[in-house]
Amino acid sequence: MFRLLGVLSLLMMLSVVPAHAHGAPTDPASRAFLCSPGQPTASSPPCRSAIAAGLPSREWDNIRLPNVRGQDAQRVPDGRLCSAGLARYGGLDLPSADWPATKLKSTDFTYRATIPHQGSFRFYVTRDGYTPNQPLRWADLDQFLNVPSPPLVNGSYEFKVQLPKNRAGRHLIYTVWQNTDTPDTYYSCTDVEIAKPAAQPAPAAAPPVKAAPPARTSSPAPSVKPSAQTSSVPRPVPLASSAEQPPSSATRFGMSAVVAALGGLAVLGGFLLWRKRIL
């Protein structure tokens, strides 16, 4: 009887203890997941260093703090964001450019829930100028997405994200999963390589506008004085005057003959007049 009461009491005590949710990003994968057994990246130098520092690699889904209630920056100190300030996960905070980075090929993110619970997700991305060689600080992050109570699909939460357009190159995605049916909040660091936006084709250059040739100022045609209308009646040829041109020898001979003839006529006339008087 007492044994039965003890078992019932134990069951009642277990029923009031909240079941802890577990989960972490798997696409793109968090540092903890990439360092878990079976992942080819677990042998990378940063993962080996983190495991040597005490990382419980089999508990990649258990970076959580209780009773945070949204006061993340007050509970998680700068430089320890990836471990959430938990000493056993401290190797995940190691500043290094050798952390395996996932090349983002789409805007689809997957967060595996090994023990699903209700809650909301907040996504952050590092600002321009971020370098993985420096400890991560809250001031390095910009929040770009908040998703309350997403549906569970095949054991995972799936998201369609839209990163800020001015991000390219090496960056880090910081994910916060705040449970609403447990007191726990989970934290994850994910190294990514963001492709540069495709260059937009330059607008086709308009064909150069050819300058219109300078208007030809037609030089005025030389004024041609209208020629006098030619009459069909032939003009008389003017005779040269004696004052202008001396008479030729033929003309002089003709004139002498005329004068001689006139003189002969005058003599003949005088002779006839004289004879008539005598008679």
From TrEMBL:
- What are the UniProt keywords, alphabetically? Membrane, Signal, Transmembrane, Transmembrane helix
Which segment of the chain is annotated as a signal peptide?
1-21
Q: Does the keyword Membrane apply?
A: yes
Is Transmembrane given among the entry's keywords?
A: yes
Q: Where is this region: Disordered?
A: 200-247
Q: Which residues cross the membrane?
A: 253-274
Q: Residue spans with biased composition (Low complexity)? A: 200-222
Positions of the Chitin-binding type-4 domain: 22-192
The record's annotation in Pfam families points to: LPMO_10
Taxonomic superkingdom: Bacteria
PANTHER family to which the protein is assigned, alphabetical: CHITIN-BINDING TYPE-4 DOMAIN-CONTAINING PROTEIN, GLCNAC-BINDING PROTEIN A
Name of the protein in its database record: Chitin-binding protein
